[in-house]
Amino acid sequence: MNKTRLIPFLGLAALLAACKSDEPAPSTTEAPFSILEAKTYLPVEAGSSTVRLDQAPATVYSRDSWLKVAVQGSTITLSTTSNNQLESRNTQLVVKDSKGDSIALNIMQEGIIFGLPKEQAMVGGDEAIDKTIKVASNVQVTYTASADWIKVSTSGKQLHIEAAANTTKTPRTGWIIAKGAGHIDSLEVTQASLADIAGTYTQRALTLNEAGAMVPFTSTLVIKEVTKTQASVIVDGTYTWEASFTPGRALELLNGKVVKTVTTGAKPVYIVTVLAADDFTNEHKNMILGTREPVLISITREGKLVFAEKFKIASEQTWASYGFVRSSSNRLTQGTYLGIEQMYIQPKLSKKS
Length: 353
What we know:
Largest sheet: 11 strands, antiparallel
Shape: elongated
Number of strands: 27
Number of helices: 1
Distance between the termini: 89 Å
Radius of gyration: 33 Å
Order of helices and strands: EEEEEEEEEEEEEEEEHEEEEEEEEEEE
Helix content: under 10%
Strand content: over 45%
Oligomer: single chain
């Protein structure tokens, strides 16, 4: 005779599940055991818990090796090592009587609660930082800073971060680092204002020559602060491009904008900005490129400026280059397009002053 029972419990944090397919199907006869006590939810740390029955079982085993089982009379002691995973883990405790009838209890061990809230990243201008955030963990965690200009302290489940105003005149990024139970997490702290990146840069890029070949091209790019969130980007002292600035992050240059107007005859010619792919070739020169999507000049975590995509336009291409085209109207369309003025493909910046 070999029957398996499924027993529900209320108030014991336990779920009883059917045995796996290798066990016989449950019968409708009475269960072989009554459960007097069952602590089936185990904390993340190594520890033990107890299951007490109304009678001694003949056989007891766990379906997974992380749960150890010891039996003394009608008392079953469950023991576990620490669960070092972020997910909880589950197994079944199978209890059988001398006839082979059995019950199965679900046993769960809590996973690690650990990490820093990414939405609390401190990214902004040069202003001083004084912030307290809530942190949650069920293991011992140490919190440190990657840079000496960041101060970190803890009080209970709160983390307090301080940073003095950035007076270095350059962007700076540091990290709050959490370590616990073999896991590491980090939270960004960036101070970067428009004043920190304003200045004159050498821009090295590729461009089309008269023969339609891509050749190196060096120019000058100037970033001028207008307000704390608005700038003028001037290329080669000729083309003036308005840009918006997100403190700590990037300049955003909108395309389809007029950066110069040339009057050589009865009608003016407008020089308009366009977005270009990094794999731009001679085949593209008679096509209008992106006029709606912006190009970014992003601040890296090392405080450098790089051209970057704001949106992923194509899976196999990177659109982080730009150019100027000619148009017979200040609103560029296929009908007003007059050709390329200048392209800056794969541009790279190095600060001069």
